[in-house]
Amino acid sequence: MKLLRERSVQIAIALWIVASAALFPLCGGHVPLDRPSVARQSVLSQVIYPDIVLAALLLLMLLIYGLTKRRTTPDMAARAPELRVAKIEALALWVYGFSVMILGRVLGQKIFGEGIGLHLNGSLFGATRVQSPFEVVTWAVFNFILFAVVPYIVFRLRGYSLEALNLRSSNLANDTLVIFVVLAIMCALDLLGPNILDLPRHAVPKGASISFIVHLLGTGLPVMIFIYSILMPRYMRLTGSAATAVLLGGASYATLHLFEYWTMYDTVPHAIVSIIFVYLTFLPPGLVKSFLTLRTGNAWVHLWAFHAISPHVTDDTGLILRDFKIH
What sign for the dihedral angle of Cα 275, 282, 171, 167? Predict the structure, then answer.
C-alpha cells in the first residue's frame, strides 16, 4: 500500500510497537495506574486492547473514506497561512496549550485534590472518587474558556474566517450523512457494554442533558477548536501530507490528555507507563477525528459523530447521575 510507504506512517507503527513492548518490563506483571474498570485485567490484556480498538477504528476510517470519496476534498492547507507563519502559530498555540494543561494540573490539585484534565474522573476507566457538581462545572468552564474561547477569539482577531478554521460546511448533505452513519455505529458499539440504558429511566433525561452540556463545554468544543479548527490546517501546510497531518492530529489529541485522572507522575517508571497508556488509548480515536476533519473540512463533523454524544452521553451519563446525586 502507498500509505505504508509514508515515512511518518512507518515511524508511527514502529513507535506503537516499541511503546507496547516496553510496558511489559516497566509494569513488572501489574499495571500501576488507578483504573478501576480494568484493574483486574492482566498487563497483556491491557496492552492488546488498544490494538483491537485501533484495528476497529481503522476499519471505521475506511468506511468514512467510502462515504466521502465522491465529494471534493477541501484544500485544508490553503486555509493556513504561509509556511513560516503557520509554524510560528502552531508552536505558539502549543506553548499556550501546555501552559494551560500545567495550570489545570496545579490549580485542580490545590482546590480539589486532583488536576483538571480533559476527562472527568470515571470516564473510560471507572471512577476513583466522587466529584462535586461545583468541581464538574469548574472543569467544564476552565477547559471551555482556555482551550476553546481564548484560541477562537485570538485567531478570529488575526483575521481567519470560519471556513479557514474548519467551522463551515462545504457539503452539508454529505457531512450530515457521515455524522449519522458514524454516530449510529458508535452508539451501537456503546450499547454493547455498560451504558445509558442500564440507568434508572426517570433519571436519564436530566442526567443525559447535563452530561451533554458539561462534556460539550469541557472536552468537545475545546478539542474541536484547539486541534481540529486551528492546528489541522497548519499541520497540512507544514507537512504537505494528509497521512502525516492525520497522525499529528491524533498525537495532538492524545497529548492534550497527558494529565488524565488516572495518570501518575510520582516516579519515572510510573510517568513513562502513564504516557504510553495515554498515547495507546487516545491516539486511535484522535486519528478518526483527524480523518473526519480532513475528509470533510468541517470540524463540527467529528464533534457530533464521534465525541459529543458517543461516548459522553451514551457512556458518561451515569457519572453525572452519581456526581450530581440524581436519583
Answer: negative
